[in-house]
Write a structure and sequence with these properties.
alpha+beta; Immunoglobulin-like; 3 domains; four-stranded antiparallel beta sheet; 12 helices; 45% helix; globular
């Protein structure tokens, strides 16, 4: 009998060792008075995670798994919930869709950071005031407002329980970056909302940004605010070069500038962002694609996406042979292929409804 128990115990230990580690987070909960059939989870830190749709049952319940870690925004209709998810989390979200702000409750394993993010969002909304009025404030008041928000966010972070020290350290830097980001947009926002066309902030208004180092891979991955500051830093470099030489192509110049970034992760993201949209409307397709390849991206997914765009667009470039179509239904009810039209003049009538 003793040997039998030892055998059972041995099998149990082996089974535990062979059990695959949990590599996903669970999102579950219930929404009262829901009138939509789904919600969408958007990634804010992992650029490979664009969105994930979660079905809502008729009784308002939902459950799904997510295999990507980081910070997200969960949208159901106009209700947006910031979330932080890690493998092994089981986050429970409950609210009444008719009174979202007052009824939102987040609980469950790993919910502490998400609860902090919700409190952070609410505090910023409270201190910023209504609409866009904050952007009409003069410099001193504007800085005072966002300095107050920064202080309030740090107090919330310090008071939060159940959040590990590593996250708090990164988040404290993120709060500072968010504050600097608000200073960075002041010129354009104040000019627009205060209706001051040629507005220029005082010379030392952005002095605090001068202390930023733009090569932190950890902050680039963690903080959208830092990522925006890095992007703006290199865009400003490009603007200076283009201003000095108006013949320079802005996208090609951006690729050249970003190719010199030493941190490979930041370089990969920056050169990809520089070309992902411009390539879809470029007249200099070959030159742009060659410049992207020369920029030194090592991100296989990004490179494959840009190559796919290039290959597709190349077939549609001016002067290239038309892509073939086969057996398209014609107005007589039969079919027509491109090869059927060889040797003929073809009139193409393009119309929309």
């Amino acid at each position: 009998m003793k040997k039998l128990w030892l055998l059972v115990a041995g099998i149990a230990i082996v089974s535990c060792k062979n059990e695959a580690p949990i590599d996903y987070a669970i999102i579950t909960g219930n929404i009262a008075n829901v009138d939509t059939k789904e919600m969408v989870l958007y990634g804010t830190t992992d650029r490979s995670f664009e969105k994930h749709t979660i079905a809502i049952n008729e009784d308002g319940s939902f459950i799904d798994t997510v295999k990507v870690e980081g910070q997200f925004l969960l949208y159901q209709a106009k209700n947006g919930t910031p979330l932080h998810l890690e493998a092994g989390d089981n986050v429970i979200i409950n609210y009444d869709s008719k009174d979202f702000n007052k009824t939102l409750a987040i609980s469950g394993k790993g919910s502490e950071i998400s609860s902090y993010l919700v409190a952070k969002k609410d505090k910023e909304k409270e201190l910023m005031g209504k609409g866009t009025e904050v952007f009409t404030q003069e410099e001193a008041d504007y800085k005072k407002t966002f300095s107050g928000i920064k202080t309030a966010h740090k107090e919330l972070l310090n008071a939060a329980t159940g959040i590990n020290a590593a996250y708090k350290t990164k988040e404290e830097r993120n709060i500072q970056y968010a504050y600097l980001g608000k200073l960075n947009v002041y010129k354009s926002y104040h000019s627009y909302y205060a209706k001051k066309k040629d507005f220029e902030p005082s010379k030392d208004f952005l002095n605090e940004i001068n202390d930023i180092q733009f090569d932190s891979e950890e902050d680039f991955k963690f903080s959208p605010a830092y990522k925006s500051l890095v992007t703006n830093h290199y865009q400003n470099k490009v603007s200076e070069l283009v201003k000095a030489n108006e013949e320079l192509d802005r996208t090609l110049t951006m690729l050249k500038v970003c190719s010199e970034i030493e941190n490979q992760t930041i370089k990969n993201a920056m050169v990809y962002d520089a070309v992902r949209y411009p390539i879809t409307r470029a007249d200099n397709l070959e030159e742009l694609y060659t410049a992207y390849k020369a920029a030194g991206s090592t991100n296989e997914k990004n490179n494959a996406e840009i190559e796919k765009s290039y290959t597709t667009l190349k077939t549609l470039a001016k002067g290239s042979p038309s892509p073939k179509f086969v057996n398209y239904e014609n107005y007589k009810g039969g079919t027509t292929s491109l090869d059927d039209l060889k040797g003929k003049y073809v009139y193409v009538d393009v119309w929309v409804t």
